[in-house]
Amino acid sequence: MTTQQSFKLTGDLRQHLIREATAARHHAYVPYSHYPVGAALLTASGKVYTGCNIEIASFGATVCGERTAAFKAVSEGERDFRAVAVVTSNGASPCGICRQVLFEFGPEMIVIMADADGQIVWEGPLTDLLPFGFGPTKLAEGQAVAAP
Known about the structure:
Layout: H1 11-25, E1 38-43, E2 48-52, H2 65-75, E3 81-87, H3 96-105, E4 110-114, E5 120-125, H4 126-129, H5 136-145
Parallel strand pairs: 3-4
Antiparallel strand pairs: 1-2, 1-3, 4-5
């Protein structure tokens, strides 16, 4: 993964991500919670991948919008995430599982949480939402000190 330090999120790009996440939210399949979530994920290549939450009657098979976008990006070969906009009715935060998935590919990525009107509720680095995230470097450190 490349460093995030040279990446700057412009106002136009921020608004583009929020618009894309808002559009993705309209595709959500939420017959149980009635809580649609849309996400728009920006990768280092400049591509944006969108996702929505998809609820299944067997609740354990349900997937969040953030993970849908992340898995779409990874399935297309992307491995370096820069920013994600998450749009919900009230500007809620990504869940813990989504934070962990995003951390795998962009621990320093910018997270934008916006409400259904596109108003930003919070913006900041993923590390603020997941300060002690477990990522690939932790596995490598653990293998270096593990007994045979």
